[in-house]
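pinging the channel bc i need a second pair of eyes. not urgent but kinda urgent?? the chain im working w is below, pasted from the shared doc
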Amino acid sequence: MSKTANPTLQRLNEGKLALGFCPFHLRTTAAPMLAHATGYDWLFIDTEHGAFTTQETSQICLAAIPFGITPIVRVCADALDEATRALDNGALGIIVPHVSTVAAAKRVVEALRFPPMGLRSWGAPPAMYNYGGPGLAEAQESLNRDILIGTMIETEEAIANVDEIAKVPGIDMIMIGSTDLTTRMGIPGQWGHEKLQAADKKVGAACKKNGKHLGLGGIGDNVWAPHYIKLGARMVLAHSDHGMIMEAGTNRATMLRALEKKAPAKKK
């Protein structure tokens, strides 16, 4: 596949694993610095569920680019106008949730790609080029190549339609939203359930057949995440600041509380 100025898209094109870190509570420019320091490749800036303002989203995106961390923004399903604002102000990728039909996938491409692929409006020279860069025609052509656009599979309807969704030009990645998908299947959080495994295999086959990258979200354990990576997932949402704080904080407190129990009784 072609060379790209997007570090995460380049890793995916080379068949490498791209690990994502989700800043949820950490809504400052420290987020990409911490992601870089701990070995992640991209940020999952969640404006669907997180309390991010447009300004916070933009500042995190701009801070990520110099560190080689790809800032990717998840928007609400019907907020494609917010997606274009994010792209105009530093984001190098967009993930759109709840895309269950071919028509919805085509709307995503139409909104987020420049002509002739889509109808995205031109704002100003983008952050990817340090607000300078090539002329208009070359810039739009390269941005159509370098911006990563992903859609999420989160319903059984989407699974049924995934073969056709994967054929839509302009979509780079299809991510399985495991949490919402298992919830809608009636098996919430059962990462090893045969229904989820079958869905993963179907989505993976559609991606492979149509040259799309397979993404994985929602599975933060050390048992089933490796399983789905072995099946072909390469764009993996690995962890969130919330999960890391809860996990590390609990482990640390548990260890120190155990020391208190082992300490010798205080003499009277």
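so The two ends are 75 Å apart (CA to CA). and Residues 7-262 form a domain with the TIM Barrel fold (CATH 3.20.20.60). — does that match what u expected or am i reading it wrong
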